[in-house]
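Final report, results section. Input specification for complex C-07:
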Amino acid sequence: MRDCGLESTVMATAGAPIVFGRRKESDRVPTILVYGHYDVQPVEPISAWTSDPFTPQIRDGRMFGRGTADNKGQHIAQLLAIKAVLESSGRLPVNVVMIVEGEEEIGSPHLEQWVDEHAHLLKADFAYTSDGAIHPSGRPVVLCGARGLLYLELTLRVAPVDRHSGSFGGVSRNAALELVQAVSSLWDRDGEVAVPGFHDAVAEPTDLEKAAVEALPLTSPIHTSEMVTSSSDWFRRLLLRPNMNISGLGSGWTGPSMKTIIPASATAKLDVRLVPNQDPYDIARLITERLRSTAPEVEVNVISGVKPSRTPLDSPIVDRVSQAVEFAWEQPPLLYPSLAGSVPDFVFTSNLAIPSVIVPYGNADQANHAPDENLVLDYFHKGARTFVAVLHAFAPYESART
Amino acid sequence: MRDCGLESTVMATAGAPIVFGRRKESDRVPTILVYGHYDVQPVEPISAWTSDPFTPQIRDGRMFGRGTADNKGQHIAQLLAIKAVLESSGRLPVNVVMIVEGEEEIGSPHLEQWVDEHAHLLKADFAYTSDGAIHPSGRPVVLCGARGLLYLELTLRVAPVDRHSGSFGGVSRNAALELVQAVSSLWDRDGEVAVPGFHDAVAEPTDLEKAAVEALPLTSPIHTSEMVTSSSDWFRRLLLRPNMNISGLGSGWTGPSMKTIIPASATAKLDVRLVPNQDPYDIARLITERLRSTAPEVEVNVISGVKPSRTPLDSPIVDRVSQAVEFAWEQPPLLYPSLAGSVPDFVFTSNLAIPSVIVPYGNADQANHAPDENLVLDYFHKGARTFVAVLHAFAPYESART
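Structure output:
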């Protein structure tokens, strides 16, 4: 940050520190809050990497290495854009505030509190994040939100130890069966969430959002036998609807052959994707109530709660950023009402109450979280050019804050 | 066996060999077929043993070591009884045929075929097995059958690899959810088996069997919070009713914290206890049909199928064995219509069509399958005296075969 013309300081949280930066040009120009993260996923299995994950290597027009795409490579494009503008103009057309956090990959557990405590440093007209991937076709994308995440760990213990089914089969309780019955009750037979109240807070998508998902070209990377929906409903379900998913199940003996036991305990992990205006903790309470109506003793532990976020598609910010993207990529971006996944975008749209856009610079085959993570250098360059255009797109813009 | 006066030979099977022994006294006296097994459970965790599992050690009136109770120690009581009678009388009052197999702990997968192929060597008036435990109160028991076992492994795969729930949550199938819904459909909300046809073949217990379970004293070793039944129904459910149990569940991420995946595959293990006249392979078919009505792609693999067995409680064999037990233990045995667990007793009652009784010599706290397995020496001596009495109980008995 300092090399690129920003003041910078490392600020402690209860977890990994946040790197904070800023460059103030004037009270009369807008302020952009740029978000990124410096933490990465583990590199295992390291033997599957073609080159060392922490020695960046350029091959075939891509830079390979852990974090090249997710997220340091994308974030560096913003810094180089700032540096380039300063080198050519001596100043920026806007003010910049920058947050680079170190816990994005574990659900940003300390970001919200830090943002609340430092809101006075974070006054901005909108937030801007580059993370994720452009469309597989090569078209750039602009995303106006993200689904939220609720991650629950369910545990049911009914006995101090596993029992021999040859001694107790038919008279003693089975934790696996009780948990399976409770978990199963969360969905109807069609696989739709059947938790009472689950959909109550779901905001009806706007006409613009519906039109936006209709316009998205489907290039499904999975076989139709894997799909639970028709192609025509793909993006509506993925971007505008909530979803609940069993991401883990464990109980008793899962090794080879057989072990005739009645499990004393069972666990399940649930991964819930939320849309506006669902609150993860409200949803956790509804799921817990439903589970306990079948299995009163089940323990429910919230592992992660990330609120959904949304910026209106007709926000002038979205329009200006889209124009900047079109200039840099020489084609108009696809407009997504939301990311299907979950990023802590809500701290901007809810806690700071400002618009927020996500403009990925990564290639669709970036292999983030996997071996041979990489960033296509052409997209990296387009990313830097994009942010140069974004910095300039707001020069004539009257800051809403002034 | 040779040291104790039997001819003996080791006979191959497709698995572990069977040790076969016999002593023929006369065509005019009955023949007892004695069954035991020489295989044992693994000793792990070995660090939890007080003394080496394969160096028998006597402490506090018990012999400690793997197999002391399950089953070599109990079986040696039979051999020493034969030896003692031969040393004192020079001959046995009956003929003896003996089978000691090496695969009981893995469900006796080759015993049935071997018995069918060697039925000409196994002509006997009844079968006699000492395995398991006497009543915790110290009273001896005579068991007239065993529940059968069906062990199934269910596998459902819906995708080539796990998917990221942030990219596919709501549009791609979830193996864990589909298997949970299918497995859950096998029981009703009260936890009773709801597979159509499951109970059709269940034979109505006889009045004697009902009276026998009514007479059994309950000394439940589990807390009431673990029980799915009232004490009054304990033995009826445990001995006269079938039961199905989830013994293992595995899918997706079960480690600490979270991994936001949609599992590509899921597995479950089902352990089913059967009563006369349920056939394990018929039941496997019914369960498969029920599962596939919900999850058509689920694969069902039969890991083990052991038929139930029953000898009528009013068989003269049961009466005479009970008298021998009473003589040796100086108290009348408790009469069980069945073992709750599963032993390959059906090869005698079904394949050879002879009565069969199980007369355990082990203590209730024998810790079989666990560290510090042990056999109370007083019960071991009573066991040897029991078999001496059994050998003599049939001297005046006219063999049904002659």
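Chain A touches chain B through 73 residues (CB under 8 Å). Chain A has ten helices and 19 strands. This concludes the modelling results for the funded period.
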